[in-house]
Amino acid sequence: MARVLRRRFLTLFAAAGLSACTAAPGPAPSPSGASPGSPAVSASSAAGASTRELDFNRGGDRPLPTKVWLPAGPGPHPLIYFSHGLTSQPDDYADLLAAWAGAGFVVAAPKYPHTWYGATAFNADDVVNQPADAQSVITGLLTALDGVVDPQRVAAAGHSAGAITTVGLLTGSRDERLRAGLLIAGRQTAQPAPFTGTPAPLLFVQGKQDETVTYEQAYGAYNEVPWPKAFLEIPDGGHLPHRDEPAVVAATTTDFWLWALRGDQAAKQRMSRSAGLTGTL
User: Fold this and answer.
1) What is the DSSP string of 161-198?
2) Residue 5 pLDDT > 50
3) In b/e form, how buried is each residue of 81-104, taking b as 16+ CB within 10 angstroms?
4) Among 30, 78, 157, 251, which lies 20 to 30 A Cα-Cα from 137?
5) d(CA 225, CA 201)
6) Neighbours of 189 (CB within 10 A)
7) Per-domain residue ranges for the chain?
8) Domain 2-274 has what CATH class?
9) How many whole angstroms separate alpha carbon 97 and alpha carbon 89?
10) Which of 112, 129, 133 shows the shortest CA–CA distance to 35?
11) Which is nearest to 85 in space by CA: 164, 2, 5, 197?
């Protein structure tokens, strides 16, 4: 399986022609109703990265409590904004997000008001409002973590419904602050808008056996991306490829961030090797 996975990744990676994105994005207007972050209300340490909780609220009626994983050492650090999947919440992805923070990135993940399990008035259709939530939280983070995050090195990632949210930030609700993106089990909406704006390298991570977001849906979205891109297939993976193959996904995505946000060319070369870490040689 490792050889199959590596071959698939290398083939698509080479076809995509990934290259460093050097154009600095222009500032995006602050979303209506954006609220600056409050001081941290709690702090703890997890997997070598300290964590903080920040409170945001878009428009006064969309609370967006946000967990932040902070790397050791002085900033400014690149910012990775992460969107959880339907019925999930940030802590469900703690291992992966802490791994990114351990590599030197600030990782921030909000709990969306109506799409996590236990939310008041749960509503799956509320995903359409999440790109605006994301823009608001990113704006708040740049204020609350001034000096800690680098506003010129911002990326977005997400899983499932969170990946759809990320697609929104790169299409109809394009946020020009984004320099790169990661889609885990991601697809476009039923009425997709084109990817637009400043090119932002994208990495897709997809379980071949996923029955929730199918391989065909994910690959269809991949084919629509006009920018540098790569596709990591997990042959035996389902809808949670980051849990099915945690070592593969953590290593490959971390190297992607190191390259896309820090310009680390050695990390770019390592990505193909990372994709073979299945332990089934």
Assistant:
1) HHHHHHHHHHTTT--TTEEEEEEES----SSPPPP-SS
2) no
3) bbbbbbebbbebbbebbbbbbbbb
4) 251
5) 9
6) 14
7) 2-274
8) alpha beta
9) 12
10) 133
11) 164
